[in-house]
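INPUT
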Amino acid sequence: MGALLQNLSYYYHYPFVRYALIVGVLIALCSSLLGVTLVLKRFSFIGDGLAHVAFGAMAIATVLRLTNRMLLILPVTVVCAILLLRGGQNTKIKGDAAVAMMSVGALALGYLIMNLFSASANLTGDVCSTLFGSISILTLTMTEVWLCAAMSVVVVTVFLLFYHQIFAVTFDESFARAASIRASLYNLLVAIVIAVVIVLAMNLVGSLLISALVIFPALSAMRVFKSFKAVILCSARQPGGNRPGDGK
Amino acid sequence: MALLVCQNLTLGYEGNRVVEGLSFTVDSGDYLCVVGENGSGKSTLMKTILKLKAPLAGRILTGDGLRPSEIGYLPQQTVAQKDFPASVREIVLSGCLSRRGLRPFYNRAEKLRAAENMEKMGIAALAKQCYRELSGGQQQRVLLARALCATRKMLLMDEPAAGLDPRMTVELYALIEQLNREDGITILMISHDVAAAVRYASHILHIGRHLFYGTTAAYLNSAIGRSFTAVEGSDG
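OUTPUT
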């Protein structure tokens, strides 16, 4: 145990390890906060779906040789998240089918484009690192760390300010609408935030494993606690302990 | 002026007209049951009254200082709610949301109101319990308490007795009748249970191919009322 701690404190001398830890914890915090709402709305798999969409967008951005790939990935993912969450229960294609359709379609398209047009010598390596995460968490720049910190502040503030509205819309959308709460606005808010979190989290765990960050904290908290507030608090506190990215 | 006036409404969705020429008035203290076959537009009528949907034609007026957001709504339970991890108190409090505005917390008056309504519905002892662990009847009381937090005047219910056993159903109807008689809350209810509808309601609205609106006694004497209640047998 002593040796382990010594080892850890040795690693923490390096700034890139500290950055990785900070960003990892912040992203896990945001995704688990949102996770509770998403799991309860029966959108557990949206993380996976959106990550695949982001993968497809990333493939296109790589082929187009954009210098800042975020400029393409982020808008595409946000639009898909809005399309998925906006419809809610009343669309012709229900939630899970829509997520599945979008996710598989984007994955196939992304891989096809990478295969046809990629200039890289190590195609399998590229694809693998986007799907399963990569060492890019250790090459974070200061700007990215600040971006993550700012985003976490925004997510937590949104949650604190609109906690009761988010609760009402998650529990019973028709009652909330009848009480003249603008449910579609809150759905939109959640959709945008989750899309941004997922795009940032792709660096951390890769697009295949993102769902873990979204659903595990929420699900385990839901099993244990009996009130919404306790579930949210517990879910948000977990990431410090069980980050899937820790092994990297 | 009446609490709610519907003038010459045409209801439907995606250009598909379900009900045409529907007019009725609800006065303060009425107990109106909406009956009709499946797909006759009962739920669409509810959504239109709650302003969740625009009518294809006609208009809905509210009077006596009733704002559309002040109608307490008891929707049908969704699948997602059955295992929702929330305490009874949290759910009842969320009924106060529309009067709270943008303030990010509930004040003392709203908490008191939630406590009163839980008391009234006989669920005060369950306040800290988890919603998913309650029985169907208790869950319905929780949702009713929440709807009461949103209104003092009018409750709109969408088949409140769906999925309840006979004893729970009787208890729930008694509770609703008490709200109507003692607290003077106007009740608007969609029901498939025609026997209960004619027993408790003061007015009946029958929608479908033939429209009927009038008092319960008039409904029982009308041709459409007789044909509809006859199916139920002699227990009405």
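end of record. The longest strand of chain B covers residues 16-26.
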